[in-house]
Amino acid sequence: MTHEETLTRYTANFIDELHRNGLTDVVISPGSRSTPLALTFAEHAFINHWVNMDERSAAFFALGMAKQQNKPVAVVCTSGTAAANYFPAIVEAYYSRVPLVVLTADRPHELRDVGAPQAIEQINMYGQYVKWFHEMALPESTPPMLQYARSKAARAVQTACFGNAGPVHLNFPFREPLLPDFSLENLWEKQEYPSFHQVLEGKDVLEPSQLEWIINKLSSHEKGLIVVGPQFDTELAEAVSALANQWNIPVLADPLSQLRAGQHDKANIIEGYDAILKSKQIRDRLNPDFIIRFGAMPVSKPYLLFIKEHSEIEHFIVEAHHGYREPAGTPAQFIFADPVKLCSDFCEAAGHLAFNEEWLQSWRLMNQTAKRQLLAEQESTFLTEGHTVKQLAEAATEESTIYVGNSMPIRDMDTFFMTTPKQIRILGNRGANGIDGMTSSALGAAAHGEKVALLLGDLSFFHDFNGLMLAKQYNMNLTVVLINNNGGGIFSFLPQAGQSDHFETIFGTPMDIDFQHIIAMYQGRYSKPESWEELRQALTDSYQEDGLSVIEVQTEREENASWHKAKWTIIEQKLMEYFEG
């Protein structure tokens, strides 16, 4: 058997097995050493291949697609620093629990550590940030080695998806020549089985005695909170709402919790909790007996301070699989069980529990007060970052997605995105909270035709200009709401703002970029509204048109910080009047 036939059959068996295990998309960055993988993926009839020349953008694009589809996505690159450019997205995927199958091509063993070009150490190069690493054997086409290739492909997808999802890495050493031969007969071997390794994964549930133990502890309390942080499970909203209604308990819902939008009952949803907890005076007056948290730690820093200041609260953290996401450092009890099933079990086994009605009504009143002040229009007509979120929420269409950038945009989303019956999915990269790769991630979410809006700041947009090439290349539907405060707006809220001597140079970092020219380069539509009416029209138009639309909202950092602080001051005053009332 020739080298070309061996290479082709080995690679084809591996890639076909990825498909049999549910992989339907791969993002390829061109390169020579990865030729066998790239061409074989392109040849496979049931796998969509996307080409992205920038490996950093490619990995974030795959990340966004995997989040939106809730399925694993593969990425393919050549050897050398190409693989290193995947690292930021792999870190994000690891911490945000997103399944990626990372396939890096490599020089064969005889060309490593001898000064050969484009050869770096790729063994375990992503360290602890992948769930599994495997160095693939050199291609062979004997029946045992073709079974080996299928075995590793099946394991890669299953490992990426099962338990806490995350990235896996397989490294492929290839010898030249690198061109596969697709004229071979029976290349895609017909297999009778759907997967080389079939896996049945059950859901973790509590034993009756464990459930009874928790219920007995809760029954001695009067005031509780359910908190739902960033998470992807679309079924959790209904389950949590049913539990909260039965127990008469408020639900603090993070913007990435998937609880603020949809048709489920939102009577007990408290979306204004970040603004409520901004004031230490208010935090000191709120003393829940227990908290049950689902999902990751919420975005809200005031909530984190609240937890740290009240370490006496009995804290239950629910994880579908093993994990320790508790940055507050306070005593906590972990419940490793399927969250939706746990809510159902609580409703069934603890239907008699009904917590303090006054406590719930107090939170509802505080929430109404905060929302009223947050959404109140002010006399000035200047555009504000917070109310831009309000306009975006109103313009967003059914079954659409809003992807949110880090730093100020996600915090404004937390503060100003209120409950809505519309089915809107809110996504963000809150695993490592970086500002890189946001445009590429949002385009990945839009890859299969979904209407996606991206809310982000100017520095984050600058970080990922290369990602816009995908919008042009594939004519994707993406609305970018670009908050341009000419620099790092979040630092205006931090102690660094008092360092006037070096603040602008080190933290403010103004760029003074005319973004219109960049958008034109990628053949997108650009608008820069000067009023609320113009902004509403631009948003409406963007949802009715195909392709890339960039809406630049020009704001001023100091003015924005003052506007936010004025809102928080009024809310604090109103809430103190209620408490002292």
UniProtKB/TrEMBL annotation:
The keyword Ion transport does not apply. Residues 219-404 form the Menaquinone biosynthesis protein MenD middle domain. The lineage of its organism: Bacteria, Bacillati, Bacillota, Bacilli, Bacillales. Its cofactor is thiamine diphosphate; Mg(2+); Mn(2+). Pfam families: TPP_enzyme_C, TPP_enzyme_M_2, TPP_enzyme_N. Pathway: Quinol/quinone metabolism; 1,4-dihydroxy-2-naphthoate biosynthesis; 1,4-dihydroxy-2-naphthoate from chorismate: step 2/7; Quinol/quinone metabolism; menaquinone biosynthesis. Keywords: Magnesium, Manganese, Menaquinone biosynthesis, Metal-binding, Thiamine pyrophosphate, Transferase. InterPro entries: DHS-like_NAD/FAD-binding_dom (IPR029035), MenaQ_synth_MenD (IPR004433), MenD_middle (IPR032264), THDP-binding (IPR029061), Thiamin_PyroP_enz_TPP-bd_dom (IPR012001), TPP_enzyme_TPP-bd (IPR011766). Homodimer. The gene is menD. This is 2-succinyl-5-enolpyruvyl-6-hydroxy-3-cyclohexene-1-carboxylate synthase. Binds 1 thiamine pyrophosphate per subunit. It catalyses: isochorismate + 2-oxoglutarate + H(+) = 5-enolpyruvoyl-6-hydroxy-2-succinyl-cyclohex-3-ene-1-carboxylate + CO2. Catalyzes the thiamine diphosphate-dependent decarboxylation of 2-oxoglutarate and the subsequent addition of the resulting succinic semialdehyde-thiamine pyrophosphate anion to isochorismate to yield 2-succinyl-5-enolpyruvyl-6-hydroxy-3-cyclohexene-1-carboxylate (SEPHCHC). Residues 440-553 form the Thiamine pyrophosphate enzyme TPP-binding domain. Gene3D superfamilies: 3.40.50.970, TPP-binding domain. The keyword Metal-binding applies. It comes from Sediminibacillus albus. It comes from the Bacteria. Residues 13-124 form the Thiamine pyrophosphate enzyme N-terminal TPP-binding domain.
